[in-house]
Structures are given as C-alpha cells and as structure tokens.
Amino acid sequence: MTAAQRVLDLFDGYRLTPAQRRIAQCLVEHAGGAAYLSSGELAGLAQVSQPSVTRFAMALGFDGYPSLRRRLREVLDSPAAQAGPEAGDNEWQRAIHGERDNLGRLADQLADGRAVTEAAKLLAASRPLPVLGLRAAAPIAGYVAYFAAKVHPDVRLLDTGGSLLADRLEQARAAGATAMLAAVLPRYPREALDVLRLARAGGLSAVVLTDSPVSPVAAHADVVLPAAVGSRLVFDLHAAPLALAGVLLQAMCDAQPAHTQERLESFERSAARRQVFVP
Predict the structure, then answer these.
(1) Does 32 share its domain with 153?
(2) Residue 176 — pLDDT band, cuts 50, 70, 90?
(3) Which of 112, 130, 215, 227 could form a disulfide with 244 if both were Cys (CB 3.0 to 4.6 A apart)?
(4) Which residues span the domain enclosing 22?
(5) Which of 51, 12, 7, 10 is nearest to 26 (CA)?
(6) Weakest-pLDDT range from 76-85, 244-253, 260-269
(7) Residue 277 lies in a domain
C-alpha cells in the first residue's frame, strides 16, 4: 500500500467540508512528508486558515492537529508502510499488484453498501438518465451507459465536451431527469466540474464516481463513490473504478428487479430474432 493510500484511509467514512477536503487532499499529495508538516505549513499548502486545520483534525476524531500528526507518523513509519514490493518484481508486476490492492480496498469499502444503494435508487428512478464522462473517464461512462441501457428506457451518454454538452444536459433535465451519474477521474477536467455545478443548480442529484473521497469533485456530489486509480505506469489504470461501475449497475438492477427482468427478457428476444450474437 502506498503512503498516499495509507493517508487516504484515515479519512475513509468521514463527511468533510470543502475546506477540509482541500486539507485532506494536500496531505494525500504530500504523503511522503505529511507527518512532519506543521499546522501552519499545512494551512499554507491548502490555502486555508490555521484554525481550519485544527477543526479538520477534530472532525476526524482527534483532539487537535498534534494528535493527527502523531497518528500520521504511526501510519507512515510502520514496518508495513516501509516494506517494499515483492522481491524480483518488475515495474509492470508492481503496477498490477497495486491494482490488486486497490480492488482489495474497494471490496472492504463495499462492506457498507449504503452509498451504492442510495446512488442506484437515484439513478434507476431518473427518466432520462444522463451519464457523464470526459477524457480519461469517457470509457467508464460508456461502459455504464451501454449496460444501463439494457435495463433503463432512456440513457443519455455525455462523453464529448464543448458548448453542446450543456445543451444536452438541459435537454435531459427538461425531459424529466432527476439525477445524473458523472465519472470524473484524474486529471479532473474543469469542464466536468462545470457540468456538475450546472446539474445541481438545475435541481439534479449528482452521483459521482471518482478516485478519492477528497477529490475536487466530491464537493459537487450528492453521493460520492470512490475507487482508487493506479498511477504506477505512464497512464493511469482504472481497474477499481471499472469494478465499482459494475457494482453500481448491479445495484441499479436490484433497485427495480421486476422492471429489470422484463427489460432483459425483452432484449434477449430481440437479439435472438435479429441474430445479434454468434450462437
């Protein structure tokens, strides 16, 4: 487990204010030296006041920032944290081992499925259902939209930017949409944040699938579904976000089982009639 992931685990399950998320993100980004930052240094990095750092520590259950810093040192200086990768592993193997760890943490996170269940109910009930994913997140949005369309009557994929993006979102809202799913992954396109702001200003509930509970888009979401992104190769690996997308699709099916079964059976009859798939 990387230092950043160990720091991130300290925030798991806490609902943080936007300012507190900035502090948390700074600790994650500077994980190597996070345990040795003074409260003033951390406040400067996060561009918040020093009292905000104290309130952040207390929000995590500590009696002040010194207690949080001691905990950071315990986490980051433990033998497990100092342990290196398996002997003999090359960089490709280490990258895949990292994805295994990301999936393991996701599995642990899903022991409490309330966030996924809440998100699934919001999305399954929205007619139509906009699904946003720009740049690196476009393939995940496409995956969700493709399979969701088999059980949902009106899925609208928003995977290209530009001025038409806002038009298409407003059209979905005018047609009756009540919620949207946004996949937003590093490097967090500014346009995706703008669309989320527009969606929430228009009354849509926003479910965001992202890499971290303290990512920049978390402040613009009604429900945050985090899954870590692998960063050991030149380009990010998205095994955990894709797995979480599959879990969300399952939960959407579970939210309306009779409707889901009817839609799936209808599709299978149509596919057989048209000979869509090779026998």
Answers:
(1) no
(2) very high
(3) 227
(4) 3-90
(5) 7
(6) 76-85
(7) no
Q: How many folded domains does the chain comprise?
A: 2
Whether residue 11 is contained in a domain is answered as: yes
113-158 pLDDT tens trace: 999 999 999 999 999 999 999 999 999 999 999 999 999 999 999 9
CATH value at residue 7: 1.10.10.10
